Amino acid sequence: MPSTKPHILILTDLDGTLLDATTYSYEAATDALSAIRALDASLILVSSKTRSEMEPLRLRLDNRHPFIVENGGALFIPKAYFPFPFEQAAPRGDYEVVEIGTPYARLRTALKEIGRDLGCRLRGFGDLSLEEVSALTGLSPAETLPATQREYDEPVVVESNGMAWSRLSAAAETRGLRWTRGGRFYHLMGENDKGVASRRLIAWYERRAQQEGRALITVGIGDSLNDLPMLEAVNYPILVRNPDGSYDPDVQCPHLTRAEGVGPVGWNRSLMDLLPTL
């Protein structure tokens, strides 16, 4: 008989949210991770990280669900995960991939043009050495190379005092692109964001839940502005504290819960409070 229990879908940011912003550890979130497994809920990793970075983490977490890379640049869905085909998917290895973002080569060209037109120094990951990326991110040398293997999103260091955000935004928009802000970097990208990708994935989960005669409950957890579109797509949006104990003031949406705790501490505490009530 089909289950009548709602299916719980949890979409989470990684750096500064599930993962500690400095150590990249999820140890503080182990209780909630165990609760998620016990409930047979689906935990979806939604990050500005690349596929090369996220796959080892999925193995450590024993996570076999779809995941979203590079600020919604693409969705990676394990083959045969859903009992129906879905639009615009292309096979790639063990996945069906839905690409939403702009090719990386175009982003690199546009970044150079924007820096030249505005007379400011914009350095993306493609301009930095592995040593510089490691120093900026705190990643180990072995972890740094996967972080630079980008396909849909360019993290950028803006090295110009007083450069108006409106000028940067306008320069991107004239090229059909846009900016967002993560925990450490600005990101230049196309028409994708975490919300666009999350809504597509949620629709497929809703379709499967309807076939099973179940309701779907969605939860989203993040820490910064690039998570806002994802948080706006879910029933229960949660914002964790930044390392300095503050909340990102630019993240505002209806029914937002502000977790009591930084990063994975707040992640764990908020889910341990919420999950028993669903």
TrEMBL record:
SUPFAM superfamilies membership: HAD-like
Broad enzyme group: hydrolase
Keyword tags: Hydrolase, Magnesium, Metal-binding
GO biological process: mannosylglycerate biosynthetic process
Molecular function GO labels: magnesium ion binding; mannosyl-3-phosphoglycerate phosphatase activity
GO cellular component: cytosol
Pfam families (alphabetical): Hydrolase_3
InterPro entries: HAD-like_sf, HAD-SF-IIB-MPGP, HAD-SF_hydro_IIB, HAD_sf
EC numbers on record: 3.1.3.70
Keyword Isomerase carried by entry: no
Protein name per the record: Putative Mannosyl-3-phosphoglycerate phosphatase
